[in-house]
Structures are given as structure tokens and as C-alpha cells.
Amino acid sequence: MAVLEIVKAGDPVLKQIAAPIEKVDSKLRKLMDSMAETMYKADGVGLAAPQIGQSIRCVVIDVQDEHGLLELVNPVITAREGCATDSEGCLSVPNVFGDVERAAKVTVEYTNRWNKRKKLTADGLLARCIQHELDHLQGVLFIDVARSIRQGDKKQQ
After folding, report:
1. Residue 58 marked as a ligand binder
2. DSSP string of 62-123?
3. Do the beta carbons of residue 115 and residue 63 sit within 8 Å?
4. What is each CA distance from 155 to 40, 46, 52, 151, in whole angstroms?
5. Tell me, what's the pLDDT at 155?
6. In DSSP terms, which residues pair with 102 in a beta bridge?
7. What is the residue-averaged pLDDT of the chain?
8. pTM greater than the 0.90 cutoff
9. What topology does CATH give the domain 12-156?
10. Is-catalytic flag, 109?
11. Is 67 labelled as part of a ligand binding site?
12. What does the similarity note say (predicted)?
């Protein structure tokens, strides 16, 4: 595993629609391991492949709940319920936070690291993180959809 460089807002890869992944192989599993290590080192809860310069449909998420580390390949949200607005930040947009409206509950279908199709229904922070990371796969940053934007430390907001 290796800690990877996180690209910042303004890099063209963050505005591209990411390509589907044909099959999960050892090379992709190694990349996902490095993405997770990078996310943890940066004190994040999610990281999408475009954020490390790879325009492919892969994200890693760990909101420190019972699900632990999630690795989602070719994820698709198949159901959304309710509405919730909360503050978000992004490793690719450091020291910027914004209030973003998202579905309160989502169901996502994806392929896991062993090429098995999975389905997960989530609410709360995990639902928000799934939506945020999947936006990256569509070339959308949270600052593109935020109701308001502010600079500074989230803990002081």
C-alpha cells in the first residue's frame, strides 16, 4: 500500500465522468488498499478514484460505523428517500465547507473487491458520504451543489 496524492479542485480529472470498471483484479484491489490508506492518513471518511487522479468508478468509504471499510466498484444509487441538509467538506477542497441537501436514505448497488454484486441501504452520515463520493464519479464537487460555502475549520462552524 502507498499513500497517494489527493488532487485538488481545479484539476480537470475532478470534472470528468469516470469510466466503468470491467472487472476487479489484483491491480484494482491494490489501488483500493492505497486509497483507503490515503483516506485514513488524510483523516477523511470517503475517497473516490478521481480524487487520486484515476477517472474510474471506484470509491472507498469508512464512517467508523458497523459497516467498517466499504469498497464500492461501479456503484449506482437505486433508491432515495427523504431529504436532509448538513455540512460537508472534501479532501479535494481543503478548508472549505458547505451546506448540501441530500437524500436522507439511499440504497446503493455495487461490486465488491471479490467481484460480487452487493446492495446496501444507508442513512445518516453513511448515506451522505455515499452520495458525496458518487458525485465525484460524475464530475461533481460538493461546492457545485452546496446551498452555502464557508472557509475554515468545520469544528469551529
Report:
1. no
2. --SSTT-SEEEEEEEEEEEE--EEEEEEETTEEEEEEEEEE-SEEEEEEE-TTS-EEEEEEE
3. no
4. 18, 18, 26, 12
5. 45
6. 84
7. 95
8. yes
9. Peptide Deformylase (3.90.45)
10. no
11. no
12. Belongs to the polypeptide deformylase family.
Query: For residues 129, 112, 116 and 30, what is the CA-based torsion angle, rounded to 10 degrees?
Result: 170
Distance CA 47, CA 142 (A): 13
| Phi, psi (degrees; rounded to nearest 5) at 155 | -65, -20
- Residue of 22, 37, 101, 133 with catalytic role: 133
Identify any residues that bridge with 146 across adjacent strands, giving them in sequence order.
Answer: none
Here the cell at position 114 is 471479490
Cα dihedral angle (130, 63, 147, 142), rounded to 10 degrees? -60
Q: How far apart are CA 21 and CA 4, in angstroms?
A: 20
Q: Is the CB of residue 58 less than 8 Å from the CB of residue 32?
A: yes
Sketch the domain layout of the chain as residue ranges: 12-156
90 is in an annotated binding site: yes
Provide the pLDDT for residue 157. 31
Q: pLDDT digit string (tens) for 50-60?
A: 999 999 999 99
**Cβ(57)–Cβ(137) below 8 Å:** yes
Model pLDDT for residues 94-114, shown as the tens digit of each residue = 999 999 999 999 999 999 999
